[in-house]
């Protein structure tokens, strides 16, 4: 079982889910944000397993069963989760909105009841971006190490010189390792 299938799911602690809290924090950080702008910032942070379960359960309630979870369009399932969260936040008085349709703008009213640590919710996406940069850096370095020699673009006339992606990768790794020690 992967953590991806349960991360953000409604836990038995009561209150808002991690996903709902993320959506609220994005709205709170950008008053007047549209649904499309919220979607851009949270789409990939909505856990696939959570979205698939909610969406398939909703379809089943309307008599539209799905044979297998792999048949579900993940973007549609995540969009359903966003819509459901926005409706619930509005009904509970956590957000308000002005306008109609695509021009609707959301504003945070009051924080939802949340039993987790709200500081762990990364509404800016910087933690995810840092993680992806580190993963790419490791991929580049591991490829060079697996070949047993640096790529030709990294070798200069006076021995090893790091250039381009390899230099950036080594620099990111060095900074990460330094920060952890």
In short:
The protein is mainly alpha-helical.
Write out key terms for the chains shown.
181 residues, Arc Repressor Mutant, subunit A, disordered N terminus
Write the layout of secondary structure elements.
Elements: H1 18-29, E1 33-34, H2 35-42, H3 48-61, H4 74-91, E2 95-98, E3 105-108, H5 126-146, E4 155-156, E5 159-160, H6 164-180
Helix pairs in contact: 1-4, 3-4, 5-6
Textual characterization of the structure:
The chain is 50% helix and 8% strand. The protein is mainly α. Helix 5 packs across helix 6 (164-180). Mean pLDDT is 74; it is low at 1-14.
What strand line-up does the widest sheet have? 1-3-2
CATH architecture of the largest domain: Orthogonal Bundle
Q: What does the overall shape look like?
A: globular
Category by helix and strand content: mainly alpha
Tell me the fraction of residues in β-strands, as a range.
5-15%
Helix content: 40-55%
Looking at how many chains there are and whether they match, the oligomeric state comes to: single chain
Q: What CATH first level of the largest domain would be assigned?
A: Mainly Alpha
Biggest β-sheet description: 3 strands, antiparallel
Number of helices: 6
- Under CATH, the topology of the largest domain is which? Arc Repressor Mutant, subunit A
> In total, how many domains does the architecture comprise?
2
Rg is 21 Å
**Structure summary, number of beta strands:** 5
Question: Which segments are poorly predicted (pLDDT under 50) over 5 or more consecutive residues?
Answer: 1-14
Distance between the termini: 31 Å
- The secondary-structure element order is HEHHHEEHEEH
- Provide the residue-averaged pLDDT: 74
